[in-house]
Design a protein that fits this description.
8 strands
């Protein structure tokens, strides 16, 4: 299944702390980005999210105790079985694709040079989607969605519904948010 086919709610719950997990499970968001956990807790978190009927992407760079090696990615795919992963590292995207995980490459829009490098990395490793931060720059979302063949997810610094609409109108497939108050927006 392609990532665009998974999106029912255009708000993605980005869980940054364990105390927000239950809120995400009960939210309208059908995709959860997991940015918390460690080797002892992550499997349980993934199971809870999947049992709630939601897709789960774990941000490998934030899971305490997990390396970004090929063996670690294989372990994640075989034993934890998330829908996919999020990372800033293109070699990790390649490893994850090899073991059948969906991939989201996160890039930071610091300046034109960072945007250019992010585009080059994405073109080389072909993730299933890009998550761009901050997501409050509709002009850049529009540029990237025109230039790249994969979906754009906008995240970071979005705090109002008008900003969500601006990102979506500029071409974003969805908006990821760490704010539990946004997880029940009707989008």
């Amino acid at each position: 299944m392609m990532l665009v086919d998974m999106v029912e709610s255009q708000i993605i719950a980005s869980v940054k702390k364990e105390s927000d997990l239950q809120t995400a499970l009960n939210s309208k968001a059908n995709i959860v980005f997991l940015l918390t956990g460690d080797l002892m807790t992550i499997s349980d978190y993934i199971n809870q999210i999947q049992q709630a009927g939601k897709y789960v992407f774990i941000h490998l760079d934030f899971i305490d105790g997990l390396s970004n090696s090929k063996n670690a990615i294989s372990y994640v795919a075989k034993n934890w079985k998330p829908t996919g992963i999020i990372t800033t590292k293109s070699h990790v995207v390649k490893f994850a694709k090899e073991v059948g995980l969906k991939t989201i490459q996160r890039i930071f829009l610091l300046d034109r040079s960072a945007i250019k490098k992010g585009v080059e990395m994405a073109k080389s490793c072909q993730p299933d989607a890009l998550e761009i931060l901050p997501g409050i720059i509709p002009k850049i979302i529009d540029e990237l969605s025109s230039e790249l063949a994969f979906p754009i997810i906008a995240g970071g610094l979005i705090t109002e519904l008008t900003e969500v609409h601006a990102a979506l109108e500029a071409g974003a497939l969805a908006v990821s948010s760490g704010d539990p108050n946004m997880w029940n927006f009707d989008l």
